[in-house]
Amino acid sequence: MIASKGDKIYTAIIGVFLTVIALLTLYPFWYVLIASLSSGKAVAEGSVYLYPIQTTFGAYKELIFKPEIWSGYANSIFITVVGTVISMTLTICGAYPLSKTYFKGGKTINFLVVFTMWFQAGMIPTYLNFIELGLRNTWGVIIGLAINTFNVILMINFFRGVPKALEEAATIDGATDLQVLTKIFLPLSKPALATISLFYGVSRWNGYFWSMILIRDENKYPLNVWLKSWIVENNMVNEVGSKMTSTYSAETFIYATIIIAVVPMMILYPFVQKYFVQGVMVGAVKE
Predict the structure, then answer these.
(1) Torsion of Cα atoms, 79 then 82 then 86 then 88, to 10°
(2) C-beta of residue 237 within 8 angstroms of C-beta of residue 253
(3) Which of the four pLDDT bands, split at 50, 70 and 90, describes residue 2?
(4) How many helices (H) and strands (E) does the chain have?
(5) pLDDT digits (tens, 9 = 90+) for 175-210
(6) Residue 257: which of 80, 78, 68, 83 has the closest Cα?
(7) What pTM was computed for the model?
């Protein structure tokens, strides 16, 4: 089909518009990157716009020699990896039986699961519940925040899309429910598994509030908690007097920390990108 002149103009306008939106979206990240590579004086004067001014790695050198950055990295990786594994295990174990129409009480349990999206206990009751259950420090953050209702619903809808004939054939051959799940459903659910794992992983890596509240041992602080404490510390320093050297300032130090904090997710995303588009469409079309 040959596109008309009007279609070509429309496509060009849409392409330009989306390009501008993409650049506007990427610019904040670009600014953080170039500011982290610029001198503290240039950033303080507001002369950094499109490229680094007086390029220096002083902020990164200062950051590398902080022991907190490495312990924070290790703790964040531990919480993200172990937390994502636990979250996916519980999500799969909950979604698989709830995806079955013959599961007794399934409708009631499904309603209770969805109910938690509408009504939540609130911050203070949730915190008191964590304390009563003894969920303090690292394992409290991992176990206490293990399930996301929205992700469970996504997984349920994807499992329901698997052809029933495959399950029936496996059952006739003598397969157990566990074998049906591990040999049929999970291999066919790679897009959903990759997408939901990415959701859990990003949430774990970026989360700092409950980590800040529940983790009392500084040796177990994740990277984002240290980042928050450094931001508060540097803001207090700036109120008294600007903390600046010839190569970096409080602002460039914070920008460098942000860049280091987002690098793991940027490295991970390309590996799951091929599943992401298909996975986010889970449950979008009803037949």
Answers:
(1) 90
(2) no
(3) low
(4) 15, 0
(5) 787 888 888 888 888 888 888 888 888 888 888 788
(6) 68
(7) 0.76
